[in-house]
Please model this.
Amino acid sequence: MKKSQFPFKSLLIITVVTFLLYLFWGNTFAYPLIIQLRAKKVLIFLLVGVSSSISTLAFQCIVNSRFLTPGILGMESFYRLIQTLLYFFGYRFIQTNLLPATQFLLVVAIMVLSFWALSHFSWQNIS
Model:
């Protein structure tokens, strides 16, 4: 085995063993139901992990930087702030009459415009 493959293979083995322990540990009652629920949870974790890594790679390719990530820029925290403000102040008005796809596009538009305004005003104050 090559030296560069050792960390990947060892992490893969640790991941599979952890997955199996989580799936089968402590199941004495309602065994099939518990396995089904835990397997769904693990698949969702894998989907989120793969999606997050692909989006981070795409972001790094777009900005041409290996060190800059959306987490460093605070985009995830900004997303949580916008979602919290929308839920607290105006989600009743958005939710009642719009389709889910329209709601999503509206939230994305609000986020892009507010992030653009925030970055625009912060760059103007620097120079």
User: Anything to note?
Assistant: Residues 32 and 38 are 10 Å apart (CA to CA). The chain has a mean pLDDT of 81. The first helix runs from residue 6 to 24. The radius of gyration is 21 Å.
